[in-house]
Design brief:
4-stranded mixed beta sheet; alpha/beta
Length: 128
């Protein structure tokens, strides 16, 4: 068994698509119109056949309170692996990304947390 798909709830799929592709560097894998919304998945360009990230509309009534509670408590919705948190922090900050936690070294793990502009905090992590 392996992870095939993970999702992040977004308040605007088009805005999320721009942020996750233009800023973070993911690439669109699947786009299927579903009425008002789309089945919209992204992958890492380093693993085009790897785990997909679904940009899921946050329209369900339970989602917005859940997202708000996570953000209020500083809890990331998900985590992405990077080769170097400090370098990625610098790259993203230069692109205008707002970080809620600058790089923090915790033994063999370094993390940072940013706002994805779509209602979520996202963590980047690198392990030695």
């Amino acid at each position: 068994m392996r992870i095939h798909l993970s999702s992040v709830f977004v308040d605007d799929q088009e805005k999320a698509l721009r942020f996750y592709t233009d800023i973070l560097g993911f690439v669109k894998k699947t786009e299927v119109p579903l009425g008002e919304h789309r089945w919209l998945t992204l992958v890492s360009p380093e693993a085009p056949d790897g785990t997909e990230l679904l940009l899921e509309p946050d329209g369900h009534p339970a989602v917005k309170p859940y997202k708000t509670a996570l953000v209020d408590d500083g809890i990331p919705a998900t985590s992405f692996a990077v080769d170097d948190v400090h370098a990625e922090f610098g790259r993203l900050r230069a692109l205008g990304v707002h970080f809620t936690q600058e790089p923090l070294e915790m033994g063999p793990v370094t993390t940072a947390v940013f706002d994805d502009t779509c209602g979520n905090l996202i963590q980047i992590v690198h392990s030695e």
